[in-house]
Amino acid sequence: MPEPVTPDVRDRPVRVAIVGTGAIAREAHLPAYRALGGEVDVVAAFDIDEASCRAFCADGSVPYAYTDLGKMLAEQRPDLVSVCTPPAVHREQTTAALAAGAWVWCEKPPCRSLEEYAAMEAAEGGEGGPYASIVFQHRFGSGADRVRALIARGAVGRPLVAHCQTTWYRGTDYYQVPWRGNWAAEGGGPTMGHGIHQMDLLLDLLGPWSQVRAMTGRLVHDVETEDVSTALVRFASGAMATVVNSVVSPQEMSRIRIDCERATIELTHLYQHSDDDWRITPAPGVALEELAAWRETGENVPSSHLAQLRPLVADLRAGRRPRASGADGRTSLELAAALYKSAFTDSTVKAGEIGPGDPFHAAMNGGATGRAL
C-alpha cells in the first residue's frame, strides 16, 4: 500500500505530472495548472508518442518528457498525476500512479466498467490518500454550488420532475480516431463519453437514483457503440427524470431542468456554464425575491477544470478525500452501467443490482460481441 502524501507537501508546490499529451491535456489540464501559479509545479509529462510528448513539454515549458510511465513515476515522484489518455488505459495508469504514492485526477469516463473502477478504488491508500478523483467539472462552479444549496435547504421545495439533455453533434471525422466508437477501447458511446457530464451534475443535485429504464440506438454512425441513448430514471427521493444523450443533433445543447414544488431550475449551455446560464422561475404565488438572491452574492465562478482543481489541490495538501472520488466518483458510472443493462436486456434495472458476477459489471455491453445493441 502506498504511503500517504508526506507532510512537506503543505509547504511547497505540488509536483504534477501529466499522462497523455493530447488535446484535453493541452487545452484544459495544463492551463488549469498554470492558473494556480506557484501552488503547483508541472515537472513532467508522459506519452507513448515521443514526438507529441516532446512538443507538449516544449510548448508548455514542462521540464521532462517520458515515454515510460514507470520510469517517470520513479524518477519524478509526483504528488499529483493527471490522466488524460483514452479510457482503455485509465485503470492501468491510475493504479500505477496510486501505487507510486501519487494522487490522481483522471479524465472522464473514469474507466470502461464498474469492475475496472473497483480496481482503481482498491489501489487507493488508506486515511490521507492517495486518492483518485474523476474529472467531473460540471458539478463545480458557483452556479452549481448555489443551486445545490437551494435544493438541500428546501428553498425551492421538493424536486419532482427533471430533464437531463446532452444533445451534441459529431460527424464521421470524429470517429476516425481509432479508439472511438468501439466497446473495447472506449467502453461506450455518448452515454459514457459525452452525456456522463450532465448525468453527473444531475446526480450531484438530486442524489441517489433507484431505478432505470432505457433504450439505445445506432441511428447514423457506422460504429459498434450507440450514438443515441434515452432513459427514464426514478430517484430515491421519488423524483423522476428523462435523460437523453446524442451525438446526432445539429443544434447542440447541454441542459438540465428540475421542476420543484416552489420553482423550476434550468441550466442551458454547451461545454461550460456560469451563473448567467442558470434560471429560476418561481411557482405561482411564490415571490421571486425569495429566490433571486441566490446569484447576487459572491463571485461568478464558471464550471471548469480549474474550478475542480482548486479544491482538489487543497484536499491533497490536507490529506482528505476529494469530491468525485471513491463512491462519489462511481455514481455516474453506475448510472451508465444500469442504462446499458436496461437497454440490452429490455428490463428495468434497480440501483445496486450490478455487482461482481454480473456481465454488465465487467463491461458496459455485458460482453456482447461486435455491434450488438
Automatic annotation (TrEMBL):
Which residues, by range, are in coiled-coil regions?
Answer: none
Domain named Gfo/Idh/MocA-like oxidoreductase N-terminal: which ranges? Answer: 14-123
What is the superkingdom listed in this entry's lineage?
A: Bacteria
State what protein this is by name.
Predicted dehydrogenase
Residue ranges constituting the GFO/IDH/MocA-like oxidoreductase domain according to the UniProt record: 146-266
State the Gene Ontology terms under molecular function: nucleotide binding
